[in-house]
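batch job 7 of whatever, protein = FtsK domain-containing protein
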Amino acid sequence: MRTYNSKALRIEFAAPWVKCLIIAIAFFIVSVLIYLLPPNNLPIDGVLLKCNRVILSISISLFLISVLLRIFFTQAKQIKHMIMIGLYYRRYGNPLCLRDGEFLPIIKVKQLSNTKFLLTIYAIVVNAEILQKLGVTVSSILNRRYQRFAVTVLNTDVALSYVQYTLEDVTIDKSFSFYSVDQMKPVRQTVFVVQKGDSIDLTTSGSILVAGKTRSGKTTGIISILIQALLCGRDHQYSQITIIDPKCAELSVLPHVVTVDDDVEATAILQSLKEFEAAMRKRQRILNERSKQIGDAVHWWEFDMHPSFLFIDEYVACRSLFPKKAEKGSDYCLAAFDNTLKRIVTMGASAGCFVILSIAEASVDEGGLPTMLKNAMTTKILFKPTLTEGRLIWDSLKLENFPERVYSAGDCWFSSTDGEHDDVAFCHFPHMRFPVYRELGRLLKEYYGESADGGVPQDGARRENTISY
Ligand SMILES: Nc1ncnc2c1ncn2[C@@H]1O[C@H](COP(=O)(O)OP(=O)(O)OP(=O)(O)O)[C@@H](O)[C@H]1O
Protein backbone atom coordinates (compact mmCIF):
# COMPACT_ATOMS: atom_id res chain seq x y z
CA MET A 1 0.00 0.00 0.00
CA ARG A 2 1.39 3.35 -1.01
CA THR A 3 -1.57 5.58 -0.22
CA TYR A 4 -3.87 5.79 2.76
CA ASN A 5 -7.16 3.95 2.47
CA SER A 6 -9.56 4.17 5.36
CA LYS A 7 -11.44 1.15 4.00
CA ALA A 8 -8.38 -1.09 3.78
CA LEU A 9 -8.85 -4.54 5.34
CA ARG A 10 -6.58 -5.90 8.06
CA ILE A 11 -5.35 -8.62 5.69
CA GLU A 12 -3.83 -5.93 3.44
CA PHE A 13 -1.45 -5.10 6.30
CA ALA A 14 -0.39 -8.69 6.83
CA ALA A 15 3.32 -9.47 6.61
CA PRO A 16 4.51 -10.77 3.18
CA TRP A 17 5.15 -14.25 4.58
CA VAL A 18 1.62 -14.41 6.03
CA LYS A 19 0.11 -13.36 2.67
CA CYS A 20 2.21 -16.01 0.94
CA LEU A 21 1.14 -18.66 3.43
CA ILE A 22 -2.54 -17.81 3.02
CA ILE A 23 -2.27 -18.17 -0.79
CA ALA A 24 -0.37 -21.47 -0.32
CA ILE A 25 -3.17 -22.78 1.93
CA ALA A 26 -5.81 -21.65 -0.58
CA PHE A 27 -4.06 -23.56 -3.38
CA PHE A 28 -3.76 -26.59 -1.15
CA ILE A 29 -7.48 -26.55 -0.33
CA VAL A 30 -8.34 -26.27 -4.04
CA SER A 31 -6.08 -29.23 -4.75
CA VAL A 32 -7.71 -31.34 -2.03
CA LEU A 33 -11.18 -30.39 -3.24
CA ILE A 34 -10.35 -31.39 -6.80
CA TYR A 35 -9.06 -34.69 -5.53
CA LEU A 36 -12.05 -35.41 -3.32
CA LEU A 37 -14.79 -33.83 -5.39
CA PRO A 38 -13.74 -33.83 -9.06
CA PRO A 39 -15.85 -31.46 -11.22
CA ASN A 40 -18.88 -33.21 -12.89
CA ASN A 41 -17.80 -36.36 -11.03
CA LEU A 42 -15.14 -36.97 -13.67
CA PRO A 43 -12.62 -39.69 -12.77
CA ILE A 44 -9.43 -38.10 -11.45
CA ASP A 45 -6.98 -39.02 -14.12
CA GLY A 46 -5.40 -37.60 -17.27
CA VAL A 47 -5.57 -33.79 -17.61
CA LEU A 48 -7.30 -33.25 -14.26
CA LEU A 49 -4.65 -35.17 -12.42
CA LYS A 50 -1.92 -33.12 -14.13
CA CYS A 51 -3.72 -29.88 -13.25
CA ASN A 52 -4.08 -30.98 -9.68
CA ARG A 53 -0.36 -31.79 -9.48
CA VAL A 54 0.47 -28.30 -10.77
CA ILE A 55 -1.83 -26.71 -8.18
CA LEU A 56 -0.31 -28.84 -5.42
CA SER A 57 3.25 -27.96 -6.46
CA ILE A 58 2.35 -24.23 -6.55
CA SER A 59 0.96 -24.64 -3.05
CA ILE A 60 4.14 -26.37 -1.82
CA SER A 61 6.38 -23.76 -3.52
CA LEU A 62 4.40 -20.91 -1.98
CA PHE A 63 4.64 -22.60 1.39
CA LEU A 64 8.44 -22.87 1.05
CA ILE A 65 8.67 -19.23 -0.09
CA SER A 66 6.59 -18.24 2.92
CA VAL A 67 8.99 -20.16 5.22
CA LEU A 68 11.94 -18.38 3.60
CA LEU A 69 10.23 -15.00 3.92
CA ARG A 70 9.57 -15.74 7.59
CA ILE A 71 13.24 -16.65 8.14
CA PHE A 72 14.38 -13.41 6.53
CA PHE A 73 11.72 -11.36 8.31
CA THR A 74 14.33 -9.80 10.59
CA GLN A 75 13.56 -8.06 13.87
CA ALA A 76 13.95 -4.68 12.16
CA LYS A 77 11.38 -5.71 9.52
CA GLN A 78 9.01 -6.98 12.21
CA ILE A 79 9.19 -3.66 14.04
CA LYS A 80 8.71 -1.72 10.80
CA HIS A 81 5.68 -3.80 10.00
CA MET A 82 4.21 -3.31 13.47
CA ILE A 83 4.70 0.46 13.24
CA MET A 84 3.10 0.55 9.78
CA ILE A 85 -0.02 -1.24 11.05
CA GLY A 86 -0.17 1.04 14.11
CA LEU A 87 0.08 4.19 11.99
CA TYR A 88 -1.76 3.25 8.81
CA TYR A 89 -4.59 0.91 9.80
CA ARG A 90 -7.67 3.01 10.51
CA ARG A 91 -8.86 0.80 13.43
CA TYR A 92 -5.80 1.96 15.41
CA GLY A 93 -6.96 5.55 15.33
CA ASN A 94 -5.02 7.04 12.38
CA PRO A 95 -2.57 8.96 14.63
CA LEU A 96 -1.05 10.77 11.63
CA CYS A 97 -4.50 12.12 10.63
CA LEU A 98 -4.03 10.90 7.05
CA ARG A 99 -6.76 11.37 4.45
CA ASP A 100 -7.84 8.89 1.80
CA GLY A 101 -5.51 8.91 -1.21
CA GLU A 102 -2.63 10.64 0.62
CA PHE A 103 0.82 9.07 0.23
CA LEU A 104 1.98 7.12 3.26
CA PRO A 105 5.17 8.41 4.93
CA ILE A 106 8.26 6.27 4.30
CA ILE A 107 9.35 4.24 7.34
CA LYS A 108 12.77 2.67 7.84
CA VAL A 109 14.05 0.61 10.77
CA LYS A 110 17.70 -0.22 11.40
CA GLN A 111 18.97 -2.59 14.07
CA LEU A 112 21.73 -0.96 16.15
CA SER A 113 22.22 -3.78 18.65
CA ASN A 114 20.24 -6.67 20.13
CA THR A 115 18.29 -4.27 22.28
CA LYS A 116 18.33 -1.09 20.23
CA PHE A 117 16.71 -0.05 16.93
CA LEU A 118 16.58 3.20 15.01
CA LEU A 119 13.22 4.09 13.47
CA THR A 120 13.15 6.84 10.84
CA ILE A 121 9.91 8.36 9.57
CA TYR A 122 10.27 10.76 6.65
CA ALA A 123 8.32 13.99 6.84
CA ILE A 124 7.02 14.08 3.28
CA VAL A 125 3.27 13.99 3.68
CA VAL A 126 3.14 14.56 7.43
CA ASN A 127 5.20 17.45 8.77
CA ALA A 128 8.02 16.98 11.27
CA GLU A 129 6.05 18.77 14.00
CA ILE A 130 3.43 15.99 14.05
CA LEU A 131 6.15 13.32 13.95
CA GLN A 132 7.93 14.93 16.91
CA LYS A 133 4.84 14.33 19.07
CA LEU A 134 4.66 10.68 18.10
CA GLY A 135 7.08 9.27 20.72
CA VAL A 136 4.45 7.92 23.11
CA THR A 137 2.29 6.55 20.26
CA VAL A 138 5.26 4.67 18.79
CA SER A 139 6.11 3.22 22.21
CA SER A 140 2.55 1.96 22.67
CA ILE A 141 2.37 0.52 19.14
CA LEU A 142 5.25 -1.79 20.03
CA ASN A 143 3.65 -4.84 21.58
CA ARG A 144 3.90 -8.62 21.82
CA ARG A 145 7.57 -9.54 21.38
CA TYR A 146 8.56 -5.86 21.48
CA GLN A 147 6.42 -4.66 24.35
CA ARG A 148 9.55 -4.05 26.44
CA PHE A 149 10.74 -1.53 23.83
CA ALA A 150 10.00 2.17 24.04
CA VAL A 151 11.23 5.39 22.43
CA THR A 152 14.12 6.67 24.53
CA VAL A 153 15.56 9.34 22.22
CA LEU A 154 13.91 11.44 19.56
CA ASN A 155 15.91 13.43 17.02
CA THR A 156 14.71 15.69 14.24
CA ASP A 157 16.83 16.26 11.17
CA VAL A 158 18.01 19.90 10.91
CA ALA A 159 16.25 20.29 7.58
CA LEU A 160 13.08 18.83 9.20
CA SER A 161 12.99 16.13 6.53
CA TYR A 162 12.78 13.20 8.93
CA VAL A 163 12.41 12.29 12.59
CA GLN A 164 14.38 9.47 14.18
CA TYR A 165 13.29 7.49 17.21
CA THR A 166 15.68 5.31 19.16
CA LEU A 167 13.79 2.24 20.34
CA GLU A 168 15.32 0.46 23.30
CA ASP A 169 14.50 -2.41 25.57
CA VAL A 170 13.88 -0.34 28.67
CA THR A 171 13.64 -3.30 31.04
CA ILE A 172 17.24 -4.43 30.62
CA ASP A 173 19.23 -3.99 33.79
CA LYS A 174 22.70 -2.82 32.81
CA SER A 175 23.83 -2.22 36.35
CA PHE A 176 26.61 -4.30 37.78
CA SER A 177 28.85 -4.49 40.80
CA PHE A 178 32.59 -4.50 41.34
CA TYR A 179 33.61 -6.79 44.16
CA SER A 180 37.24 -5.75 44.23
CA VAL A 181 39.21 -2.78 43.00
CA ASP A 182 41.28 -4.97 40.63
CA GLN A 183 38.16 -5.65 38.55
CA MET A 184 38.00 -1.94 37.73
CA LYS A 185 41.24 -1.65 35.75
CA PRO A 186 40.25 -0.23 32.38
CA VAL A 187 41.25 -2.02 29.20
CA ARG A 188 42.36 1.30 27.69
CA GLN A 189 43.45 4.35 29.67
CA THR A 190 41.02 6.53 27.70
CA VAL A 191 37.80 4.58 28.21
CA PHE A 192 36.11 4.38 31.61
CA VAL A 193 33.09 2.19 32.25
CA VAL A 194 29.91 3.78 33.63
CA GLN A 195 27.60 0.77 33.26
CA LYS A 196 27.45 -2.55 31.41
CA GLY A 197 28.12 -1.71 27.76
CA ASP A 198 28.53 2.05 28.25
CA SER A 199 31.61 4.12 28.93
CA ILE A 200 33.07 7.60 28.80
CA ASP A 201 35.57 7.88 25.97
CA LEU A 202 38.09 10.59 26.83
CA THR A 203 39.41 10.75 23.29
CA THR A 204 36.12 12.25 22.14
CA SER A 205 34.78 14.00 25.23
CA GLY A 206 35.96 16.63 27.69
CA SER A 207 35.33 17.67 31.26
CA ILE A 208 32.54 16.11 33.31
CA LEU A 209 29.67 17.80 35.13
CA VAL A 210 28.00 15.74 37.84
CA ALA A 211 24.82 17.01 39.47
CA GLY A 212 22.42 15.49 41.95
CA LYS A 213 20.89 15.98 45.33
CA THR A 214 22.58 14.75 48.45
CA ARG A 215 22.73 10.92 48.80
CA SER A 216 22.01 10.48 45.09
CA GLY A 217 25.32 8.69 44.43
CA LYS A 218 27.36 11.56 42.95
CA THR A 219 30.52 11.04 44.96
CA THR A 220 30.40 7.26 44.55
CA GLY A 221 29.91 7.65 40.80
CA ILE A 222 32.86 10.07 40.53
CA ILE A 223 35.04 7.84 42.71
CA SER A 224 34.37 4.95 40.31
CA ILE A 225 35.80 7.11 37.49
CA LEU A 226 38.77 8.26 39.60
CA ILE A 227 39.60 4.70 40.68
CA GLN A 228 39.72 3.64 37.02
CA ALA A 229 42.02 6.59 36.27
CA LEU A 230 44.24 5.78 39.28
CA LEU A 231 44.49 2.15 38.19
CA CYS A 232 46.01 3.33 34.89
CA GLY A 233 48.91 4.62 36.98
CA ARG A 234 50.81 7.84 36.56
CA ASP A 235 52.63 8.55 33.33
CA HIS A 236 55.98 10.30 33.23
CA GLN A 237 54.44 13.27 31.52
CA TYR A 238 53.00 15.25 34.42
CA SER A 239 49.73 13.37 34.84
CA GLN A 240 47.90 14.19 38.08
CA ILE A 241 44.77 13.17 39.93
CA THR A 242 43.83 16.10 42.13
CA ILE A 243 40.89 15.77 44.48
CA ILE A 244 39.51 18.84 46.22
CA ASP A 245 37.10 18.43 49.11
CA PRO A 246 36.02 21.88 50.32
CA LYS A 247 33.50 20.37 52.77
CA CYS A 248 36.22 18.70 54.87
CA ALA A 249 34.12 15.52 54.59
CA GLU A 250 35.08 11.84 54.07
CA LEU A 251 37.34 12.56 51.10
CA SER A 252 39.39 15.17 52.93
CA VAL A 253 40.97 12.60 55.24
CA LEU A 254 42.47 10.63 52.37
CA PRO A 255 46.12 11.13 51.42
CA HIS A 256 46.84 13.70 48.71
CA VAL A 257 43.34 15.19 48.91
CA VAL A 258 43.31 18.98 49.08
CA THR A 259 40.93 20.63 51.50
CA VAL A 260 40.46 23.97 53.26
CA ASP A 261 43.28 25.42 55.33
CA ASP A 262 43.15 25.20 59.10
CA ASP A 263 41.84 28.79 59.21
CA VAL A 264 39.01 27.83 56.78
CA GLU A 265 40.67 29.66 53.90
CA ALA A 266 41.10 28.09 50.47
CA THR A 267 44.68 29.05 49.61
CA ALA A 268 45.71 25.39 49.30
CA ILE A 269 42.80 24.80 46.92
CA LEU A 270 43.80 27.72 44.68
CA GLN A 271 47.42 26.54 44.80
CA SER A 272 46.44 23.03 43.70
CA LEU A 273 44.44 24.46 40.79
CA LYS A 274 47.46 26.48 39.71
CA GLU A 275 49.66 23.41 39.91
CA PHE A 276 47.19 21.41 37.86
CA GLU A 277 47.16 24.17 35.26
CA ALA A 278 50.97 24.31 35.23
CA ALA A 279 51.13 20.54 34.66
CA MET A 280 48.53 20.85 31.91
CA ARG A 281 50.65 23.49 30.15
CA LYS A 282 53.77 21.30 30.43
CA ARG A 283 51.87 18.40 28.85
CA GLN A 284 50.65 20.67 26.09
CA ARG A 285 54.24 21.82 25.45
CA ILE A 286 55.39 18.19 25.14
CA LEU A 287 52.63 17.56 22.62
CA ASN A 288 53.43 20.75 20.70
CA GLU A 289 57.08 19.70 20.49
CA ARG A 290 56.08 16.30 19.10
CA SER A 291 53.65 17.89 16.72
CA LYS A 292 56.49 20.10 15.42
CA GLN A 293 58.70 17.04 14.89
CA ILE A 294 55.99 15.05 13.15
CA GLY A 295 54.55 17.97 11.23
CA ASP A 296 50.98 17.12 12.15
CA ALA A 297 48.57 17.47 15.06
CA VAL A 298 49.12 14.84 17.75
CA HIS A 299 46.87 13.46 20.46
CA TRP A 300 47.80 12.91 24.10
CA TRP A 301 46.74 9.25 24.10
CA GLU A 302 49.01 8.45 21.16
CA PHE A 303 52.08 9.23 23.30
CA ASP A 304 51.26 7.09 26.29
CA MET A 305 49.97 10.03 28.31
CA HIS A 306 47.52 8.95 31.00
CA PRO A 307 44.51 11.15 31.73
CA SER A 308 44.77 13.81 34.43
CA PHE A 309 41.76 14.64 36.58
CA LEU A 310 40.92 17.62 38.75
CA PHE A 311 37.88 16.76 40.84
CA ILE A 312 36.19 19.53 42.80
CA ASP A 313 33.54 18.14 45.11
CA GLU A 314 30.65 20.53 45.81
CA TYR A 315 31.83 23.19 43.39
CA VAL A 316 29.34 25.83 44.63
CA ALA A 317 30.48 25.38 48.24
CA CYS A 318 34.08 25.59 47.06
CA ARG A 319 33.50 28.93 45.30
CA SER A 320 31.88 30.34 48.43
CA LEU A 321 35.18 29.92 50.31
CA PHE A 322 36.95 32.54 48.22
CA PRO A 323 36.92 36.25 49.02
CA LYS A 324 35.47 38.47 46.28
CA LYS A 325 38.50 40.77 46.31
CA ALA A 326 42.16 39.90 46.71
CA GLU A 327 44.32 41.66 49.23
CA LYS A 328 47.15 43.81 47.98
CA GLY A 329 50.03 41.76 46.59
CA SER A 330 47.97 38.56 46.46
CA ASP A 331 45.75 36.91 43.85
CA TYR A 332 43.80 34.88 46.39
CA CYS A 333 40.22 35.65 45.33
CA LEU A 334 37.21 34.21 43.54
CA ALA A 335 38.18 35.61 40.15
CA ALA A 336 41.54 33.78 40.29
CA PHE A 337 39.75 30.52 41.13
CA ASP A 338 37.12 31.00 38.40
CA ASN A 339 39.60 32.01 35.72
CA THR A 340 42.04 29.16 36.43
CA LEU A 341 39.18 26.67 36.33
CA LYS A 342 37.81 28.09 33.07
CA ARG A 343 41.25 27.78 31.47
CA ILE A 344 41.60 24.16 32.56
CA VAL A 345 38.09 23.22 31.39
CA THR A 346 38.43 24.90 28.02
CA MET A 347 42.05 24.00 27.21
CA GLY A 348 42.65 20.82 29.21
CA ALA A 349 41.10 18.11 27.02
CA SER A 350 43.71 18.48 24.27
CA ALA A 351 46.41 17.70 26.85
CA GLY A 352 44.42 14.88 28.47
CA CYS A 353 43.47 17.04 31.48
CA PHE A 354 39.86 16.88 32.61
CA VAL A 355 37.83 18.57 35.31
CA ILE A 356 35.07 16.81 37.22
CA LEU A 357 32.72 19.21 39.02
CA SER A 358 30.05 18.01 41.37
CA ILE A 359 27.09 20.22 42.22
CA ALA A 360 24.15 19.48 44.49
CA GLU A 361 21.77 21.84 42.70
CA ALA A 362 21.49 21.80 38.96
CA SER A 363 20.91 25.59 38.97
CA VAL A 364 23.03 27.76 36.73
CA ASP A 365 24.44 31.30 36.93
CA GLU A 366 23.50 33.15 40.14
CA GLY A 367 24.67 30.96 43.01
CA GLY A 368 25.20 27.99 40.73
CA LEU A 369 27.28 26.91 37.80
CA PRO A 370 28.30 29.59 35.25
CA THR A 371 26.62 28.92 31.88
CA MET A 372 30.00 29.08 30.17
CA LEU A 373 31.31 26.19 32.31
CA LYS A 374 28.10 24.22 31.89
CA ASN A 375 28.37 24.48 28.11
CA ALA A 376 32.08 23.66 28.07
CA MET A 377 31.61 20.43 30.03
CA THR A 378 30.88 17.79 27.43
CA THR A 379 29.94 14.87 29.66
CA LYS A 380 26.90 15.54 31.83
CA ILE A 381 25.52 13.30 34.52
CA LEU A 382 22.46 13.99 36.66
CA PHE A 383 21.93 11.59 39.55
CA LYS A 384 18.41 10.77 40.79
CA PRO A 385 17.12 13.10 38.08
CA THR A 386 13.95 15.12 37.83
CA LEU A 387 12.74 16.75 34.61
CA THR A 388 13.00 20.21 36.19
CA GLU A 389 16.67 19.70 37.04
CA GLY A 390 17.34 17.96 33.73
CA ARG A 391 16.06 20.97 31.79
CA LEU A 392 18.68 23.15 33.49
CA ILE A 393 21.43 20.91 32.19
CA TRP A 394 20.14 19.76 28.79
CA ASP A 395 18.02 21.16 26.00
CA SER A 396 14.44 20.34 27.06
CA LEU A 397 13.73 18.82 23.61
CA LYS A 398 16.27 16.10 24.43
CA LEU A 399 14.26 15.13 27.50
CA GLU A 400 10.85 14.95 25.86
CA ASN A 401 10.64 11.19 26.06
CA PHE A 402 11.86 10.77 29.60
CA PRO A 403 9.08 9.66 31.89
CA GLU A 404 9.78 10.67 35.48
CA ARG A 405 9.98 7.75 37.82
CA VAL A 406 11.36 6.87 41.21
CA TYR A 407 15.13 6.59 41.05
CA SER A 408 17.52 5.11 43.57
CA ALA A 409 21.13 6.01 44.43
CA GLY A 410 23.42 5.48 41.45
CA ASP A 411 20.61 5.99 38.87
CA CYS A 412 21.25 8.90 36.54
CA TRP A 413 20.74 10.48 33.17
CA PHE A 414 23.92 10.62 31.18
CA SER A 415 25.19 12.22 27.98
CA SER A 416 28.63 12.57 26.44
CA THR A 417 29.84 13.99 23.14
CA ASP A 418 31.52 10.76 22.06
CA GLY A 419 29.20 10.15 19.12
CA GLU A 420 27.47 7.31 20.95
CA HIS A 421 25.98 9.01 23.99
CA ASP A 422 25.19 12.42 22.55
CA ASP A 423 21.56 11.96 23.48
CA VAL A 424 20.56 11.79 27.10
CA ALA A 425 20.08 8.21 28.28
CA PHE A 426 19.37 6.43 31.53
CA CYS A 427 22.38 4.89 33.27
CA HIS A 428 23.20 3.21 36.57
CA PHE A 429 26.73 3.62 37.86
CA PRO A 430 28.51 0.49 39.10
CA HIS A 431 28.02 -0.48 42.69
CA MET A 432 31.40 -0.91 44.39
CA ARG A 433 31.05 -3.64 46.98
CA PHE A 434 34.35 -3.13 48.77
CA PRO A 435 35.63 -0.49 51.22
CA VAL A 436 35.72 2.28 48.61
CA TYR A 437 37.41 5.03 50.61
CA ARG A 438 40.14 2.73 51.91
CA GLU A 439 40.93 1.56 48.38
CA LEU A 440 40.81 5.10 47.01
CA GLY A 441 43.29 6.21 49.67
CA ARG A 442 45.59 3.27 48.91
CA LEU A 443 45.49 3.95 45.18
CA LEU A 444 46.22 7.65 45.68
CA LYS A 445 49.27 6.73 47.76
CA GLU A 446 50.45 4.28 45.12
CA TYR A 447 49.81 6.76 42.33
CA TYR A 448 51.93 9.49 43.85
CA GLY A 449 54.50 6.98 45.05
CA GLU A 450 55.35 6.36 41.41
CA SER A 451 56.25 9.97 40.75
CA ALA A 452 59.97 9.73 41.53
CA ASP A 453 61.13 10.07 37.95
CA GLY A 454 59.46 12.66 35.86
CA GLY A 455 56.10 13.57 37.40
CA VAL A 456 55.26 16.86 39.00
CA PRO A 457 56.95 17.09 42.38
CA GLN A 458 54.72 16.94 45.44
CA ASP A 459 53.46 20.33 46.40
CA GLY A 460 53.35 21.83 49.83
CA ALA A 461 49.66 22.66 49.54
CA ARG A 462 48.57 19.06 49.19
CA ARG A 463 47.67 17.77 52.61
CA GLU A 464 49.54 14.63 53.56
CA ASN A 465 46.71 13.05 55.50
CA THR A 466 47.49 9.83 57.21
CA ILE A 467 44.20 8.66 58.64
CA SER A 468 43.70 5.12 57.47
CA TYR A 469 40.48 3.14 57.23
N1 LIG B 1 25.84 2.95 41.97
C1 LIG B 1 25.30 2.74 43.16
N2 LIG B 1 24.56 1.64 43.36
C2 LIG B 1 24.00 1.41 44.54
N3 LIG B 1 24.11 2.24 45.61
C3 LIG B 1 24.82 3.36 45.48
C4 LIG B 1 25.46 3.67 44.23
N4 LIG B 1 26.09 4.85 44.37
C5 LIG B 1 25.87 5.25 45.64
N5 LIG B 1 25.12 4.36 46.30
C6 LIG B 1 24.70 4.46 47.70
O1 LIG B 1 24.09 5.74 47.90
C7 LIG B 1 24.58 6.37 49.05
C8 LIG B 1 24.95 7.82 48.76
O2 LIG B 1 26.03 7.85 47.86
P1 LIG B 1 27.01 9.10 47.76
O3 LIG B 1 27.60 9.43 49.08
O4 LIG B 1 27.92 8.84 46.65
O5 LIG B 1 25.96 10.25 47.37
P2 LIG B 1 26.24 11.80 47.21
O6 LIG B 1 25.24 12.27 46.22
O7 LIG B 1 27.64 12.06 46.92
O8 LIG B 1 25.84 12.30 48.64
P3 LIG B 1 26.49 13.52 49.46
O9 LIG B 1 26.16 14.75 48.70
O10 LIG B 1 25.76 13.45 50.77
O11 LIG B 1 27.95 13.23 49.57
C9 LIG B 1 25.78 5.55 49.52
O12 LIG B 1 25.46 5.04 50.80
C10 LIG B 1 25.96 4.43 48.55
O13 LIG B 1 26.05 3.18 49.20
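notes: The pocket of adenosine-5'-triphosphate is lined by residues 212, 214-220, 409-410, 429, 431 (CB under 6 Å).
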